[in-house]
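Class prep. Protein, please:
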Amino acid sequence: MTGSMEGVERFDSPGKGRGLRVTRAFKVGELLFSCPAYSYVLSVKERGCYCEFCFNRKEGLARCGKCKKAFYCNAKCQKGDWPMHKLECSAMLAFGENWCPSEMSRLVARILAKKKTQKERCASEKILLIGEMQSHAEDEDNEKREMSEADIAGMHRFYSKHLEVPEHKDLVTLFSQVACNGFTIEDDELSHIGTAVYPDVALINHSCLPSVIVTYKGTSAEIRAVQDMKPGDEVLISYIDLLYPTDDRNNRLRESYYFTCECQECKCKSKDKAKLKVRKQSDPIEPDVISNMVRYARKTIREFRALNLDSVAPPSELLEMCEQSLEEMGAVFDDANVYMLHMMYQAMGVCLYMEDPDGAIRYGEKILRPYSQLYPPYSLNVSSMYLKLGRLYMGLDRHSAGMKALKKAMAIMEVAHGKDHSYLIELRKEIARK
């Protein structure tokens, strides 16, 4: 571990390799430890909204005088970020609109730059030692290999002038390590802000019944208990979205992290029936009809995700796709079925993008109750939904509903983020102004 963390120790977790466990009791909401990022990068889409260095969200950020693309709180933040920003500053000017490295390439470039400047051997190798952070380059399928090769090509194109790029084999390994161990930094509504690597947090193993949650304060990760923990309990987070049934969760874990979860929930599958709830009918629905609809739902989700990522389809087309799939699945699935909830959530997002608050509320209200039942306690997925709905209600002068939803969000966030987090401070001000 990068530093001393009182009450937490590293150990060999049976069947999992390295892990962390607590050496004293922790109560729900209590902070186990805070971890600074080894390296991080702000999403290009969030430039101008967040400081590139400290990830502070505020208006009136100062622009880099050279590239005009990066924004900072003040000269101190700009100076602090220069060792990383200089990798991109002149390149953005030189390439103009053609400057388009992936976020993964940008993060890896910063890791390499930090490795070069880091003086202490143990710190400089913290990311690059295969034994410290997992690499599955040899297990990647063709699609992932193609993505890695594209990222590597982007690194050579955009960074080779200012960075000593390692040999191809070492670069492949590093990209694999970062893919397996990187963390997405998100805001209070779970919108993507950036990507970071936290060596200490990467030691934590997965469970579909997590004991802790990871949230972010600026560029630092904070780990808080979401269950009461006693000495000797392993520190466990979820690597994936826990909404989905056991088979889906383990397919995702195998695809992204190359293992199958054997936690108690995966063994007993206690929530699978509720997650795959079918519509009540006078005649029971045949099992093969349900199986066929599950296959259809998974296929539709993949197609929608691909279409959405390409960003070529107009929003109206995306919304129509959501509505058609909901109509098709609704003949078999209950509205609380997770595949229905997935497409409702996508439809809500499209409505928000199209500035249709009524449409967004219509979908959000259908989502909220099943989310509260299917997700674990203190889930950010639930708090973010309360936040979105609360703010939508307030925008439509539905004051009572808005206050109720915002307070529900605040109750979850006080546990997940800590009562002194800037998101909670702003939310209390937001509620007081109403």
User: Anything to note?
Assistant: DSSP finds 15 helices and twelve strands in the chain. Residues 269-433 form a domain with the Serine Threonine Protein Phosphatase 5, Tetratricopeptide repeat fold (CATH 1.25.40.10).
